[in-house]
Design brief:
369 residues, alpha/beta, FAD/NAD(P)-binding domain, six-stranded mixed sheet, 17 strands, FAD-bd
Length: 369
């Protein structure tokens, strides 16, 4: 008889959060360990976490363990269209919440969760997790186990690449996230406190592949000049504070997401455009939903029961579908370079900015996935 109730494949944030969350409801977990001796790399990614994700990390005792400079509150957000006057502004004060989101250092969060998993008495780290009645696949969008389980991944490539980097500005960010929707690119600046407190940003710049390659190869001075041209200097003078990274962008989902004795979570189950910053939030919401389904199961029902796992699939179907439609719709709306489309979306942004109830509803959707 296996000593484990659940085996988890994957070495990222969602896998660690799932292991800790399931251990809290009394399950014994075999969790895939990070490869020993793996070369250290600089992770320039930053994640935008909504309040629901932060609440999960608080329950897992991981949030307060994060270094202070590894998490920054977003107090305001400005979304700008092609024209300077077309913009939407959101504020935590108007939403009556402490923060619209929290920007978190990806590497720091991974390290904190990995350390917590190492100390959790009901979590066993193994290079190859032992057998269990239930297998959770959290290997990311390039998962190999997903196909072996009989699930296919329906993927639509955008033909765009995300360029990420850490930046430092010559003026304080004041907790304001900024985003420019400029056909055909989308540029986001996420306020951050690394490497310099109060004036750093995490950059996510969605560009056509050829443009992305040009900016990746550009000298730092040329890259910084490109950022200034794209942002109009609204965030101040920006300079690179390290390496640049890139990855291809796509919309995708797995079919199915559960089967007899297995379930997919995170990017192994779904992939969305990063323009709304909701990718990791979707994955952590998967963790919450699956934990609740397993905790509420009938005493006679096995953990790997297909009917039980379909409850999880049904619970996550609408939220993931809706977020995919929203991000895909926004991308297509702002990818058009046609003058008529440009005028329409610019007027639309300005109109919504003056409709307080609509703005509050849009912000409330992003606060919970």
């Amino acid at each position: 008889m296996t000593p484990f109730d659940v085996r988890i494949l994957g070495t990222g944030i969602v896998s660690r959060a799932a292991a800790l969350s399931l251990a809290r409801i009394g399950l014994n977990v075999a969790l895939q360990a990070r490869p020993e001796g793996a070369p250290a790399s600089t992770d320039v990614r930053t994640y935008a976490l909504n309040p629901s994700s932060v609440q999960l990390l608080e329950r897992l005792r991981a949030w307060t363990t994060l270094p202070e400079d590894a998490r920054t509150a977003v107090l305001d957000m400005q979304v700008q269209g092609d024209a300077h006057a077309s913009r939407i502004e959101f504020s935590a004060w108007r939403q009556a919440v402490p923060a619209l989101a929290w920007i978190v250092d990806a590497g720091a969060l991974e390290n904190v969760l990995d350390a917590a998993a190492g100390f959790a008495p009901q979590v066993t780290l193994q290079a190859e997790p032992g057998p269990a009645p239930l297998t959770l696949v959290c290997e990311g969008k390039a998962s190999l186990s997903r196909a072996q389980l009989g699930a296919r991944f329906v993927r639509h490539a955008y033909g765009h690449t995300a360029v990420a980097a850490r930046l430092v500005a010559d003026r304080p960010h004041a907790g304001c996230a900024r985003q420019w929707f400029r056909a055909p690119d989308i540029l986001g600046l996420l306020p951050f406190d690394r490497p310099e407190a109060g004036c750093s940003y995490g950059l996510v710049w969605s560009l056509p592949q050829s443009e992305a390659q040009r900016w990746l190869a550009a000298a730092p001075e040329e890259f910084e000049a490109g950022l200034m041209a794209a942002t109009g200097g609204e965030a101040g003078q920006l300079r690179l504070a390290g390496e640049r990274a890139a990855w291809p962008l796509a919309l995708g989902h797995a079919e199915p997401v559960t089967g007899p004795g297995w379930a997919l979570l995170g990017d192994a189950a779904h992939q969305v455009h990063p323009l709304a910053g909701q990718g990791l939030n979707l994955g952590l919401a998967d963790v919450v939903a699956l934990t609740e389904v397993l905790a509420d199961r009938e005493v006679w029902r096995a953990l790997g029961d297909p009917a039980l796992l379909r409850r999880y699939a049904r619970r996550r179907a609408l939220p993931t579908w809706a977020m995919a439609r929203v991000t895909d719709g926004l991308w297509h709306l702002f990818a058009h370079e046609n003058v008529g489309w440009r005028e329409l979306r610019n007027h639309g942004l300005s109109l919504v900015n003056h409709l307080a109830p609509v703005k509050r509803w849009l912000a409330s959707q992003a606060l919970d996935v």
